[in-house]
Structure prediction request, 363 residues.
Amino acid sequence: MERVTVELAPPYDVLVGDGALAEAGSLVAGRRKVAIVSQAGVADFHAPTVTTALHAAGVDADVFLIDDGEDAKTLATVDDLCRRLADWGLLRGDAVLALGGGVVGDTAGFVAAVYHRGVAVVQAPTTLLAQVDAAIGGKTAVNLPQGKNLVGAFHQPIGVLADARTLATLPPREFRAGLGEVAKYALMPEGAAVATIVRNEADGVLARDAEVLTRLVAASVAVKARIVGADPEERTGIRATLNYGHTLAHALETVGGYELLHGEAVAVGLVFADALAGALERVDTATMDDHRALLCSLDLPTEVPGEPDPVQLLEVMQRDKKASGGLTFVLPQRQGDGIVLDAVHDPDTRALDAAFAAVGVRS
Ligand code: GLY
Prediction:
């Protein structure tokens, strides 16, 4: 088992590895009740481990299911869940444990942020995507018809349990999509340890070797922990560098119809960002080729399937809630032997055309 600390006030630990879920009891020992929020499929597999650990620690625990899918991330689910927690008698000193992927983590995390003006939350992510990204850093939110994640709060967990065993049962495509965020860390300036594992042990990663995955997840979490520790509420631009590859990815997801999961869209978005950086002479061709090869080694897509309309994608990218007006991209810039990432606003049309061409979108 590996332990990564997120250095905030108060700090919290992310436990990564086989058997992490069984540590739930020690995280909440001394509390009266813990509400395990989950979804039916996930709970069938993993709730018994958590419940047993909580009962062994003398904590009253029960499971509260929400529906599957992004459609469940609504204020209606929050309302329903809060009522059920109140009926069960959950009080301010008690805790919520989010057992599932991003939908559960976001929704249960937001409920924990507002229920009784805030109760403790443990994040127990069961997908690769949630283990390396969503469960770390305290972002919680639900959707409105007007857009994704529009109602939310920063609410840091008291601990995160990323159990490698939960990854064994993920559908192949969902697992591979999670590697899109891992690849992003590998290509970030802080991600040398992630890159080393990917470059030397891609076969073990793709075969889901538990020991390799534990090191890979821990190294990825360490990158996110460092960035969140430096800029917890995305105020200085440091946390915004986590959006490397995400401007096009969000647009592809919003426009829809390209059948890309989030992590797959991020992989394509990374190629797009690199090509944009290349056209702006921030990085050379060797860097772009090296990054693309790393994505390919993880079996990730590097082109948009189908024939998307670049004008529509540009319109959506301009409306991105993180863009603060105009078009904003997090792009690499070569500096000495490495790269740095920073925000670039409103690149010229020639550079955008080159970036679209790099991911198979013809203007
Ligand atoms: N997923 C980006 C962040 O947590 O800031």
Q: What stands out?
A: The mean pLDDT is 95. The first strand starts at residue 2 and ends at 6.
